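Sat 14:20. Reprocessing the chain from the morning session after the first attempt stalled halfway. Input below, unchanged.
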Amino acid sequence: MSAEPVSGPPKVISIANQKGGVGKTTTAINLATALAAIGKSVLVLDLDPQGNASTGLGVPRSERKATSYDILVSERPMEEALVDTAVPGLSIIPSDVDLSGAELELANAPRRSYRLRHGIERFRRTLKAKGAHCDYILIDCPPSLNLLTVNAMTASNSVLVPLQCEFFALEGLSQLMRTIDLVKGNLNKDLDIQGVLLTMYDKRNNLSGQVAEDVRTHFGDKVYQTMIPRNVRISEAPSFGKPVILYDLACTGAQAYISLAKEVVRQERSLEGASA
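Finished this time. Tokens:
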């Protein structure tokens, strides 16, 4: 049975693709940073047991006192797990390896697919009561279509799909789309595709161009105009606990994520105008 519609700020976006190595965590970290840099209030919710988004935003494991595991399993209020980052306007709810056991622990829990959604709704009410504001929650999903990803999609307004510009890019994407359709049909009727983001694009490689063309043919205007280039600075930044925008603002990777953030905001304004 579907829950009540997801409504009111913040806008919740799951960043998902069951294929590993396509840039989910990199996108979560750097899109969040870029949105914060243009004046938005942003929360990253790390829902991957590897905790790479937490590490990439400079939160050491010793400082992860409460995590997304506590929100899902113990129903702890989200505000108790918030950690401020070095980026003004950007906070994170970190993750750790305990989250890998959440699926088993929730196996027989009532409405187990709604745990994160309920947590976010409580967080919305808390923000409203305090007169506080958050524009976006970006959920970094694990590289699998498990209960964690279903919880993320059930709690979200939309899904952003990073897609690597390689030969097997579209392989397996149909499974992700089926999962989105199932969640939309059974758990969250308002779920939508936010957009498809082409990552690791190499303009010197003919294959990258062909993949980009094929994806645009298949998904049309759901594909962002911004493409994230293959860029060594993007790869280096996490080892310093920094988003690439803080690590090297001038590099092509950082500039691409700033462009993506602007495109996301324009997209939101267009949707608001269409519904007005």
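The CA atoms of residues 193 and 272 lie 16 Å apart.
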